[in-house]
C-alpha cells in the first residue's frame, strides 16, 4: 500500500467544523449517549494552540463535521520483519517452536534484507491508513543480520519523518547467548536512536532467567534505556521472569515506568487470586504489560491489570509475516476485539475501550468531562465519520485524515 493521504496543511493554520465530544448523555444515572459540538482548532508548531467555539473563518480548513480523536499508537510491532508487500504466504505447520523460527530466520534474513526498507515503508503506510502515527517497533539484533535490520528500518522511518514516529527496541530474536548476540546488543545499546533493550524467553531460549535478565537490566542502566521483554513462556518460568523483573524495578527506581513485559502469557494461566497478587506487584514496581490481544486462545487479564493501575499497552505485533498471518495493522480493530472479549458493550464501556488504540488518551474522563484536546496538547489526531468514540470502536470507523505533529494529511 502506498501512503494513503496527501499533505493538506503544516505549520500554522486553523481548522473549522471540528466535531469534539463534550460530555455524556444520561438516563437514570446511566450513560446512554455522547454529546458533541463543533469547534475551531488552531494548530501551530506541532501543537494545538487553541480550542474555541466554531467560527466561520474564510481562511480555515473545513473538516466538514468529522469527529476528531487522538491519533492511534501501536505499542508492539515488528516493522523490520513483515512479508507485507510480498506474495501471500500463510503460516507454515512445520515451524512449531520459537527455536524452529530462529532457524528459519537464519536462512531467510539475508534475502529479506534486500527489500526490507521498502516493505517496512509499505507496512507503515498500512498502519497510517488505519490512523496510526506512532509505533514502538522491535528490530532484530542477531548474528545473521548484525545491525542491518536497524539501519534499514531507520531509512524507512526517515522517508516517513513528517507523518510517522517510532521508538525503537533492540530485540535479540535469536537469544542473547543461544546465538552470539550479546556483543551486538552492547553495540546497539550505545546508539541514541535505540530507546529500549529487548529480550526473548530467557529460560527456554538461553537456559537462565537470572543471567539474561541481569545482562539486560545492566545494559539498560548503563545506557539509560527502557526494557521491553518478549515473554511467551506460560508456565512457572514465565511467572519467575515477571517477578524477577519486578524485583529489579523495585531495586532500581530509575527503571520504574520503563520496564515492559510483552505478551506475558503466563498471566493468562493464573487463578484470580494469583492474578491479583501479580497485578499488585506489577503496579508497585511500575512494570507495564504490552499485549497483542488475542493470541492463540490466551485471554489476558486486562481488566484486573487495569484495576490495579498496571500500564497496559496494545499493539498489532506481527502483521502478515511468517510468525502470524492474522495481523491487520488496525488499532481500532484491537480496541474492538478487547471490547468484545471483555464485554465492553455499553456506550460508556465502548468509549473507554478507545484508550487501547490511543494508549490512554480519551476525549472525556470517566465523569464525562472534556479533557482532550487542550491548548498545548500534541497535534496528532485523526478525523473520522463516527459520531463518537463508542461508535468508532464498535464499527471500526474509517479514518478520513491523519495529523502527525501538526502535519495534516487528508485521504486521497
From TrEMBL:
The lineage of its organism: Bacteria, Pseudomonadati, Bacteroidota, Flavobacteriia, Flavobacteriales. Gene3D superfamilies: Metal-dependent hydrolases, Urease, subunit C, domain 1. CDD domains: Bact_CD (cd01293). This is Deaminase. It comes from Chryseobacterium flavum. One of its GO terms (molecular function) is hydrolase activity, acting on carbon-nitrogen (but not peptide) bonds, in cyclic amidines.
